[in-house]
Design brief:
Helix content is 48%, strand content 2%. The protein has two domains: 121 residues, Ankyrin repeat-containing domain (Serine Threonine Protein Phosphatase 5, Tetratricopeptide repeat); 98 residues, Ankyrin repeat-containing domain (Serine Threonine Protein Phosphatase 5, Tetratricopeptide repeat, Alpha Horseshoe). The protein has a two-stranded parallel sheet. The protein starts with a strand and ends with a helix. By secondary structure, it is mainly alpha-helical.
């Protein structure tokens, strides 16, 4: 049975205040916003700066482990939001929690890799989100955790590498240092990189448009 989050609990989740949830009688995974955001979605989506502490996430997952894989209406699990907003410490916690779960005996895929490969309604993985938001540290973590997986295109035909290569600086139209790091991490850590983009374009086409195709050319050679 779903219980909609009242304003008091919503504000507590935003602030990372654990107290109102410690004695909550209903299962925490049933406590949702109208968009089916859980406590973790609310917390991760409302941090104005990267949280230094992971205490709230750790405690909530101890209280309610199913929240680790629970998606909202958009199909986003907590890892999607942590990656989008650059919460690298939280990303590590989420991956470690998934690693602690037993491997699926049928597929042989670990729960951590299963989580890294999960897509939202746009078919974006957490790596797509991190690349789009130019979160180099998160991209490094994600690609090193699952280097053999070739991240395919989303519903718009965009792979993580294409997304990073196509991004422009809002002011001068040139690659920022952070954007270059994102591309380097994808190319350097992934064993099989998908260069694809929409309408027959590739990451190399995108990089050429913004004036820096050197990184991708070197990777091809």
């Amino acid at each position: 049975m779903t219980t909609y989050m009242d304003p008091v609990l919503f504000k507590a989740a935003e602030a990372g205040d654990i107290d109102p949830f410690e004695n909550y009688q209903t299962c925490l995974n049933q406590l949702l916003t109208p968009d089916e955001n859980t406590i973790l979605h609310v917390y991760l989506g409302n941090q104005s700066s990267k949280p230094e502490s992971t205490d709230f996430v750790v405690i909530i997952l101890e209280m309610c482990p199913p929240l680790l894989f629970q998606a909202n209406k958009k199909g986003e699990i907590p890892l999607h939001l942590a990656a989008r907003f650059g919460h690298s410490n939280v990303v590590r916690v989420l991956i470690d929690r998934a690693k602690a779960r037993p491997t699926d005996p049928e597929s042989g895929v670990t729960e951590a890799k299963k989580m890294l490969r999960m897509t939202n309604e746009e078919q974006d993985t957490a790596l797509h989100e991190a690349a789009r938001s130019i979160q180099a540290q998160v991209v490094e973590i994600l690609t090193k955790e699952d280097p053999e997986f070739s991240y395919s295109a989303n519903v718009h035909g965009e792979t993580p590498l294409y997304i990073a290569a196509a991004s422009r600086d809002a002011c001068i139209g040139l690659w920022t240092e952070e954007r270059g790091k994102v591309v380097d991490e994808i190319l350097g850590n992934s064993i099989s990189v998908d260069y694809g983009g929409p309408n027959g374009r590739t990451a190399l086409h995108a990089a050429s448009r913004v004036g820096d195709d050197g990184r991708i050319l070197r990777s091809i050679r």
